[in-house]
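Run log, item B.
One chain of 570 residues. Sequence copied directly from the ordering sheet:
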Amino acid sequence: MKLDNPLSVTFEVDRETRTIRGLALPFGDVAVSKGRKWTFAKGTLTWSRVKGVTHHDLHNALATVAFEETDEGLWATAKVAKTTAGDELLALCTPDPDTGEAVWDGLSVGIAEDGLRYVARGDVHHVTAGVVNEVTFTPVPAFERARITSVAASAAQEGTPMKCTKCGNVHLDGVTECATAPAFSAESGNALAKAVDDLTKKVDGLADIKIPVGGGAQFQVTEEPLYRFDGSKASSGHDFSADLLGAIKGDQQAGERVLGFMSESLINPKGLQFVATGDVESVNQPVYRPDMFKDEEPAQPAIMYDTFYAGGLSSVTPFFYSQLKGYGGLIGDHTQGVPPTAGTFETEDGATITPGSVSGRIFLTREAADQGGNPQISGLIWSKFQRTFREMLERRTAKVLHDNLANITRLATIAAGAEGRVVGEALKGGLVDLAFTPDGSRFSRFFGAKALYRALSHAVDGNDRPLYPILSPSNADGTSSSRLGSINVAGINVAPTWSTEIPYGAEGSELPDDTSFYADPMAVKIWNSGLTRLDKVGETAAGWNIDVFAYVATHLYDLRGLRRVEYKAV
């Protein structure tokens, strides 16, 4: 707390020693600081290692200060450092020999915020405890009597300066009563005449101040408020909302500031400064709310890709593999003494798999990147790259099946527009036939197209009871999982598969939704390297690119491990 308020007096100076002495803080007087009135009493202040400074800035320390507490107030004796800045301070505190006035003739005490205690009585705050942490040499002391009384001629000068009982001045030699009253000389008369003349000129100058018709003063003095409510910081350094929160959490000083401000404002409602929201619209811009970010819905599962995934890739280098073509006559009846007839075992000539490359790019403007936020925009873009890549892998897997559709054996043929019960019976018939083939047990994944799946979900028996119920199945041919996530037909889970309709490369033009597939997970292979991300590609002042690339390879490994089911809704 800094106690500053201007008023001027004259004082005596002698610069032979570097000691300045004056009444730093009078007891019982009232001063104004931070828009509030304060008063101090004897015994309420403590101090230790206090420095004399300028502008209430401890970085500008120029003197060490000792205090003497009297009934009148707190007297300060400052020993000024022998530096150029110290010389300048002494010069500023030295009265002009012609006018008797000094540039700096006041002392201002700095009271630490920590440990400050007071009691508010009316509009005056009576300090009950406080710590002095500095004394400032100033032209504008807070208290009328907080003035430098001398720039001491002797460091041994002690005690409280007393005014002369006859002349009213304070003598440097400590004399408190002149031997004789000072004579009124011609020089004194001339000085008095000059002072009266100067005062007359100042009074005459008041005539130049024009008062508007209708009354009202042209000038108004407004003290700086303790708090401000226009978005700027008050000179006190305190914020009302921060103090209010601090008071709730038990900060006594914050609570006292809030209560003092509220009591003054209620007594004088004009002290409150309310600001309409429209007045600060330009500084209250829309706020980014990452907690309310609306991303797209979760992606559909990549059922085919997850089934046929064969591993990763590290490059686009072609690779070779071989596979079984056929065998026969390996074992037969033996004739004694005759070697067995050789059977056959054939492999394919082999196939060479050549991976392909995929890539993508997004240009990110610098302004969008600097906007940032949480989640970061680059992170959002990366998540979309990954989602799109996974969807592409599912479409590429489906494309392998669609490209070989004519060569895949039918599991069952169902008449177009057949109702769900007939569809289910046809599937069961195909499963029975498959059980009587040598490799019928290899099949385990059924990828259902929309038309087939819809028919099964609506299948009922002759009494309109669901054939594949979700709840309480009884004497049914199968069941449906929650939300129709899958339909079990005779122990085979039919999974709804979106990629059977829109294979890779055919976005925007749906293929007929009439083909479902029953597959061995080893029948098709798909490999990929995973996405590699390159950030800040080609960076310029405008922004930069986020690039991605990956390697992908697919292959139909065994055509015999696939079956198709065709059904067209009417």
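Observations after the first pass:
- The longest helix spans residues 377-403.
- The domain at 302-570 is CATH 3.30.2400.10 (Major capsid protein gp5 fold).
Flagged for discussion on Thursday.
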